[in-house]
Every structure is written in C-alpha cells, then in structure tokens.
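job 3f2a | input accepted
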Amino acid sequence: MNKYIIFTISLVCLYFILNLIIGSIVNAVFQPEWLTAWSKGQELTGTVTFGLLYNPIDLISLVLSFVISAVITSKIKYT
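job 3f2a | predicted structure (79 res):
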C-alpha cells in the first residue's frame, strides 16, 4: 500500500479512538469548578485552529493521532 493511504487510514482511525478515550476520561473526572478553565481551553482552541475546532479534546486527539500516524508510517518498510 502507498504510505499516504496508510497514513490517512491510521490518522482517521486513531483520531476517533483517541477522541473517545480522552472524552470518556474527561467526562469521568470532570468537576463543575473546572468550567472556567474549560471555557479558556475552548477559546484557545478556537484561536489556534482559526475557529475550525472549539473543543480542546478534538485538538488534543488530532495532534496525538497525527504524531502517532507519522511514527507508524515512518516505521513501515515499503517495497
């Protein structure tokens, strides 16, 4: 397979898997006192992504899946 196909498939799959895992962890430990920090995280995420994302979990999942997919793609030997 082409390395770009493997990268794209792993990026999409890892994004959804990491988004579910991180989201469930945040939902399990979230405290009402953290709402001010969460709103600041949403503002920062919106600024960094030029308004495309507002949820910090999405940004963290996207960055982690991009890094992991790049490592996976670089480790595979192509013929």
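job 3f2a | The mean pLDDT is 89.
job 3f2a | closed
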